[in-house]
Design a protein that fits this description.
The chain has four helices and six strands, in the order αββαααββββ. By secondary structure, the chain is an alpha+beta fold.
Length: about 180
């Protein structure tokens, strides 16, 4: 046992001394460029790739532009027009709205009785507002014969459809839709 321990200590000491004699071994030679290994490829620090800490892998670039504004306004207007039909049978009402709804909200909207939706006419809108730097989520506000209502829309990517995640009165005391 002592013999094994002695050999282990001797080997550890030899490796430590060898590393000290060569320097740390982790420093690049003067003038060399450090290399970053990504998957099976190696990229040097000066290869034109951005190797910053905020590098996004697989996250699509989404921007706010005139086309996005046009699409979100069109979708919000269409949805609000479909929503504000209290005289339409429940199955038809939901069927018409469903393609524009995010899955979670579609599950909630399935239980809305259109006869209890107080809106019969949209009088103005949409007025679009969004958080600066967030091109994925938008609130569209409308004036209606039942006060101000808002539609919250979200898109997963630049070419993805805008989907409704909520429809509600701006003043929750205004109306009940369920």
């Amino acid at each position: 046992m002592r013999k094994q321990l002695a050999i282990t200590v001797a080997l550890a000491a030899a490796f430590s001394l060898g590393a000290c004699a060569r320097g740390s071994g982790n420093e690049p030679a003067a003038g060399s460029v450090p290399t970053v290994k990504v998957g099976q490829e190696s990229h040097g620090a000066d290869d034109g790739h951005d190797h910053g800490a905020d590098e996004h892998h697989g996250v699509p670039e989404v921007t706010w532009d005139p086309a996005a504004e046009t699409k979100v306004k069109d979708t919000a207007s269409k949805v609000m027009g479909l929503f504000a039909r209290p005289d339409v049978p429940e199955a038809a009402w939901f069927s018409d709205l469903a393609p524009y709804l995010a899955p979670d909200y579609a599950e909630d909207a399935r239980y809305i009785d259109p006869a209890r939706v107080p809106i019969r006419e949209v009088t103005d809108g949409p007025a679009i507002s969004r958080e600066a730097g967030n091109p994925r989520t938008v609130t569209a506000s409308f004036s209606t014969d039942a006060g101000r209502w808002q539609v919250l829309l979200h898109r997963a990517g630049q070419q993805q459809s805008w989907l409704v995640t909520a429809i509600s009165p701006q003043d929750p005391a205004q109306a009940t839709t369920s």
